[in-house]
Design brief:
The chain is an alpha/beta fold and 328 residues long. The protein is 48% helix and 17% strand. It has two domains: 150 residues, Rossmann fold; 138 residues, 3-Layer(aba) Sandwich (Rossmann fold). Strands 2-1-3-4-5-11 form a six-stranded parallel beta sheet, sandwiched between helices. A six-stranded mixed beta sheet has the order 7-6-8-9-10-12, with helices on both faces. It starts with a helix and ends with a helix.
């Protein structure tokens, strides 16, 4: 009888401890934030915005992503690892719009809601998509380059990489705007720079040589993200063409802003990565609180050139102070 009572008491204590732990875990929300990569300046600003939101709301975020933006398997592994850990929610910038669909469905089946940011995802499992309207941003780039060229000339596009929904939309929007200009000829739009500055530089060199850019074969170029823009900038400088060929890029970093001041880049279409990170975490917090969230949140984009570079509003987007949030 005593043994049975003791066993009952032990089971009761274990059950109460389990319930206590469950309640504790339920109260402490942990949100995994998974970028496409962790090296570009863009992602550092996204991280800072996510940290700001987490502090305001009182949730914990865990920032983890692949080092390089072509490590698809690495990103899938990160998603699956967070699902196994049982985080409260996942905020994800998918490297590929289709390859991440199944891992996200797996998270949702495990009762872990997902908010997508920066780059869209196939399927309907996720709760919301927080990003720049990339099609519209691409159109802005096309209109700006057309204006710089006086609506005539030969242009080349150095694309980013296949499967990246965000940059594909920018390229699509850019070409849509350019094709409305009958006197502008697209001489190349099928080359991909890849995920790093090094690969983009090599591809840009080949593209410029193939189109005889030094002999007037190219009047203007467009690149749809930070790494392709910087790779093209290096190739133009090496060829002695920086400042001679009209150049519209995408995203901002210290080096690209310096190139804008030097006249080696004519304009940058700039997103607000700090806002993207901030709104993504706030949206997930609303999901976890049971509040309705919009299926699509547009965080905006602006064209930055020498004329507006030093405006306070532009500075806040191009060079946000990350130190209060990242401690660097």
């Amino acid at each position: 009888m005593v043994g049975r009572t003791l066993r009952f008491a032990l089971v009761l204590v274990a059950t109460l401890l389990l319930l206590s732990c469950s309640r504790k875990e339920g109260g402490a929300k942990k949100i995994a934030v998974i970028p496409k990569g962790t090296t570009h300046e863009f992602w550092k600003a996204v991280h800072a915005g996510a940290v700001k939101a987490s502090r305001e709301i009182g949730v914990e975020i865990v920032w983890k992503g692949p080092l390089a933006e072509d490590d698809l398997k690495g990103q899938i592994d990160v998603v699956q690892s967070f699902v196994a850990q049982g985080v409260s929610g996942i905020v994800l910038a998918p490297l590929n719009d289709k390859a991440l669909e199944k891992p996200v469905e797996g998270a949702v089946k495990a009762n872990i809601p997902v908010v997508i940011f920066d780059s869209d995802l196939a399927g309907t499992s996720h709760k919301s998509f927080v990003a720049t309207d990339n099609l519209a941003a691409g159109r802005l780039a096309g209109e700006k380059l057309a204006a710089l060229l006086g609506q005539k000339g030969k242009i080349a596009v150095l694309r980013y990489q296949e499967g990246s929904a965000s940059t594909q939309k920018r390229e699509e929007g850019f070409l849509e705007a350019i094709r409305k200009m009958p006197d502008i000829q697209v001489v190349s739009d099928n080359q991909y720079g890849g995920a790093t500055t090094e690969s983009a530089f090599k591809k840009a060199e080949s593209l410029l040589a193939a189109q005889n850019a030094g002999s007037g074969g190219v009047d203007g170029v467009f690149c749809p993200n930070e790494s392709t823009t910087f790779g093209m900038l290096l190739a133009l400088r090496k060829a002695g063409l920086a400042g001679k060929i009209k150049f519209v890029g995408f995203d901002a970093s210290d080096k690209l802003v310096s190139a804008l001041r030097d006249g080696h880049v004519d304009a940058l279409v700039v997103q607000d990565p700090f806002k993207i990170g901030y709104e993504s975490v706030r949206t997930m917090a609303d999901v976890l609180a049971g509040k309705p969230v919009p299926p699509r949140i547009d965080t905006g984009a602006v064209v930055v050139d020498k004329a507006n570079l030093d405006n306070p509003e532009t500075k806040a987007i191009v060079a946000p102070d990350l130190a209060p949030w990242l401690g660097k």
